[in-house]
Amino acid sequence: MRLHPPGPLFLRTAKQDAELCGYFIPKGSLVLIHVWLMARDPIIWEDPLVFKPERFWGSEFEVRDQDFELIPFGAERRICPGLPLAMRTVPAILGSLLNSFDWKVEWEIAPKDLDMEEKFGLTLAKSCPLRIIPLPVSNTQS
Fold it and tell me: Where do the coiled-coil regions begin and end (predicted)?
């Protein structure tokens, strides 16, 4: 969710006058927040392009709080209304799928050869869609 947010850009209104990176932003201005770029900023994230889930183990980041480094669901009053549903159902659905099937990539591509490029737009999608095939679980328990 950090590297591949569903919506790469947020539009907000400045609540007060502010100066940011040498620019004056008057109260009421429309501000475009580039979430996709923030997720790749080495000032905010160590090794930003590396997938390291352990970076969040024991961290204090909260996707629905004031931690604006990680905002895959938006923030404050305009936070995604589907956040509670996603936080409850996605782990259950993903766990169920992972435990119910063995999986293989459609063209037997090695993980290091996967194309992770994205088509940029209002929502993000992969340039080359990844297709995986579910296989029956092999019961090798004795």
Answer: none
pLDDT the model gives residue 16: 93
pTM for the model stands at: 0.60
Burial of 71 (0-12, 13-18, 19+ CB in 10 A): buried
**Structural contact between residues 17 and 26, judged by C-beta atoms closer than 8 angstroms:** yes
- What torsion, rounded to 10 degrees, do the Cα atoms 20, 5, 51, 62 define? 70
Max intra-chain CA distance, the chain: 69
| Inter-residue contact 114 to 130 (CB < 8 Å) | yes
Residue 21, annotated as binding a ligand: no
- The count of residues in the chain is 142
